[in-house]
Amino acid sequence: MSAVEKVLIAGIKSNNINRINSQTSIEELEELVKSVDGKVVGKITQSLKNPTTHYLGKGKIDEIIDMKKSINFSTLICNDELSPSQQKNLEQKLDPIKVIDRTALILDLFAKNARTKEGRLQVELAQHEYLLPRIAGQWSHLERLGGGIGTRGPGETQIETDRRLIRNRIKVIKSQIEKVRKHRQNYRKNRNRSGFITASIIGYTNAGKSQLLNILTNANIQSQNRLFSTLDPTTRKLSGKYQMGKNILLSDTVGFIDKLPTTLVAAFRATLEEINDANVLIHLLDISDKEFSNKFETSNKILKDLGYDKKPTLVVLNKIDKFKNWNNELINLNSNENETVFISALKKMNIEELIIKLSYITDKLRRVD
């Protein structure tokens, strides 16, 4: 996405409880666009029980066409994953406007932020698996040009060639990621044999995970107020002043988000296994976020879907510095009081209390062992 790409975002309103509300989800989509250097110039929503074959209803599509006359935008981004047929139908109606969905946008952001070879491999795998069922649509723009220079070919033969090339590339990437996965497994086995307790910092994206890891381990991980500013997992030993004779390792993992693409979950399996092998989870939340309770539920649902929901968990409510008068009695997360702590990673408030409660949990684990 170019630095000046102008975007109209579209979404469907949902009354589904226990989900991020529609307005917040649209705002989150706007932040995703900003994170890939796009500029949102308009928003459009529609109340529908179910998406249509064009995602939006005919009236809204006509409205988008009219908006194009008054607002200069080149791209429409939908706030859900479009089926290949929905995307093709919408493109045909809105041509020459480019149409992408929330999943493609998140994949683009991951590609922008991937730093290590492992991270880039995982993103490339997710992109290829997303593209494979949509490959025919990549050639549809040529069909609409009406012939002429540059439009002869490629037809079904080229499409099948591309599909074969993508499948072959997927096999190669999976093989490379499997080698990374085995290396990680061996590293974790050696770590466990050395008597280390491992805690994974998990939670919704932009909750402050990297910042907390930096404080607790004296690390220097990139920490920005942007969605998915860090993707690659980092493991560090708890700083000496906090260890108190205990061998504790902390790992920072990729953040969660509403409507997390399934292709990403599959591609980042090797990374997410850091959560699986952790002895303790530190579930970090941005308490200043008006949707923090729904984001807590979203993260818990993802953990459950991954099978990681039974682990001992310390719930850490971050960014209390944004409140003049905060009252933990008003916060109800159905969490045991002994397993909840309020902090400000930015101001380094209550970090010692976090360490005390983390030590309490790890001591219980050592006694069980």
Explain what you see.
The protein is of the alpha/beta class. It has 3 domains: 6-107, GTPase HflX, N-terminal domain (Rossmann fold); 114-193, no CATH class; 195-368, P-loop containing nucleotide triphosphate hydrolases (Rossmann fold). 47% of the residues lie in helices and 15% in strands. The protein has helices at residues 22-35, 58-70, 84-94, 102-113, 117-131, 135-138, 140-143, 155-193, 209-217, 240-243, 262-267, 269-276, 292-306, 351-368; strands spanning 6-13, 39-47, 75-78, 98-101, 197-203, 234-237, 248-252, 280-286, 313-318, 340-342. α1 (22-35) packs parallel to α4, α4 runs antiparallel to α5 (117-131) and α5 (117-131) packs antiparallel against α8. It is globular, with a radius of gyration of 23 Å. The termini are far apart.
Task: State the gist of this model.
The protein is of the alpha/beta class and 369 residues long. It has helices at 22-35, 58-70, 84-94, 102-113, 117-131, 135-138, 140-143, 155-193, 209-217, 240-243, 262-267, 269-276, 292-306, 351-368, and strands at residues 6-13, 39-47, 75-78, 98-101, 197-203, 234-237, 248-252, 280-286, 313-318, 340-342.
Q: How do the helices and strands line up, and which of them pair or pack?
A:
Layout: E1 6-13, H1 22-35, E2 39-47, H2 58-70, E3 75-78, H3 84-94, E4 98-101, H4 102-113, H5 117-131, H6 135-138, H7 140-143, H8 155-193, E5 197-203, H9 209-217, E6 234-237, H10 240-243, E7 248-252, H11 262-267, H12 269-276, E8 280-286, H13 292-306, E9 313-318, E10 340-342, H14 351-368
Parallel strand pairs: 1-2, 1-3, 3-4, 5-7, 5-8, 8-9, 9-10
Antiparallel strand pairs: 6-7
Helix pairs in contact: 1-4, 4-5, 5-8
